[in-house]
Amino acid sequence: MSEIGAGDAVTTAAAAVGWRRAGIAGAAIGVIAAGAAAGVAVERLTVGRGMRRRARLALDATGPYGSLRGLPGRATADDGTELYYEVDEVEPDGAADTGPGGGGDAAAPGTRRRRLFGRKAPAPVTVVFSHGYCLSQDSWHFQRAALRGLVRTVHWDQRSHGRSERGRAQAEGVTVGIDQLGRDLKAVIDAAAPEGRLVLVGHSMGGMTMMALADQFPALIRDRVAAVAFVGTSSGKLGEVDFGLPVAGVNAVRRVLPGVLRALGSQAELVERGRRATADLFAGLIKRYSFGSRDVDPAVERFAERLIESTPIDVVAEFYPAFTEHDKSGALPAFRDAPVLILAGDKDLVTPSSHSEAIADQLPDAELVIVPDAGHLVMLEHPETVTDRLADLLVRVGAVPAAANVGGHGSTAQQPGD
């Protein structure tokens, strides 16, 4: 994933000094870092480290991204892990702020619905957003801002991510798998949207989570899911992704990365210090593996950094093996009766667009959108395109009125000539 290429490479280089594996690990992971490191070296010739640090702090202080909050709730997973979610309710008076910053009230209205002649009104359609590896619910900032108040939405943090609790089973040594994430999503749905139609939206690991949900709870998909959107995700064969590396480099990384991550996870405090010490290289790697455009808004780049660097290295390590084992192509037919949107960036090095095309092969009636000049975090890089296609999907299933002003957010990438 973008986070696989960024966080792990940097922390390996910083923390492996003095370890017996330092030489081979540094060499293998260094292949990933080479392109970004060259750019950072040039930057250091012209911009002082202190100035870069002050710039990062300024972006953190002024950037509105990730500031949206809703009505909080907690679901309990089957192993006792508490999963944090937030609900944004529909606002009939249209009072919600859907501008670029998406300000609005700090908390969404309550969940009580009006009764008609003594009967409870039908449950509204609920759009459930699932985020990717090393991210959080805030990665959907632009889409949340645009839809705020127009449709009921649920945003949740996957276990060990964001505000959710560290996976209890993982704390006891149980390996996390995509099937577990599917059960987690079911727990969130049961708590936050126990009735009514659902629209499921997932990016990267979030899309895989939706596939695991369908694999284990096909009746839920059949009976309640009105539409589905897969963004930059994969149904399997992630072990074959080359991350834009030469064959020798990717083979070396595949051989050593699982062991290196286990070692790093056991030295979390040392690694986190290494991450902070190599912030410049870390930022370059995130840009390479998250975005595909020539230039991206620095505030959005910094937002992506903050999301990824907030994930502890031991969590990075314990989730990584799940992706090479992931294979849910057999679950995709469960979505055939619902409208499906499949969207990916054409320059995604983490879950290449060919993986989205493979999903479309299993769902021939789906809408396939390949976004030009876009990387793995396409919903942050080209939010207007993602929001537009998602809004169209919601209109098609009646979740949002056709006349609704969803609100646009322009591309955060600087185009040639800007």
Give an account of the 3D structure.
The structure is a single chain. The protein is an alpha/beta fold and 418 residues long. It has 2 domains: 2-63 and 244-321, no CATH class; 71-239 and 326-412, Alpha/Beta hydrolase fold, catalytic domain (Rossmann fold). Helix content is 46%, strand content 13%. The protein is built from 16 helices and 12 strands. The chain has helices spanning 2-15, 22-46, 49-62, 141-147, 168-171, 178-192, 205-216, 218-224, 247-265, 268-277, 279-290, 298-309, 313-325, 353-362, 378-381, 383-396, and strands at residues 71-76, 82-88, 115-116, 119-120, 126-130, 152-156, 198-203, 225-231, 295-296, 340-345, 367-371, 413-414. It has an 8-stranded mixed sheet, with helices on both faces. Strands 3-4 form a two-stranded antiparallel sheet. A two-stranded antiparallel ribbon has the order 9-12. Strand 10, helix 14 and strand 11 form a beta-alpha-beta unit. Helix 2 (22-46) packs across helix 11 (279-290). The radius of gyration is 21 Å and the shape is globular.
CATH superfamily of the largest domain: Alpha/Beta hydrolase fold, catalytic domain
The overall strand count is: 12
Q: Please work out how many helical segments DSSP would assign.
A: 16
What average pLDDT do the residues reach? 79
CATH topology heading of the largest domain: Rossmann fold
- CATH top level of the largest domain? Alpha Beta
* Model regions low in confidence, pLDDT < 50 over at least 5 residues: 1-49, 94-116
Structural class: alpha/beta
Architecture of the largest domain, according to CATH?
3-Layer(aba) Sandwich
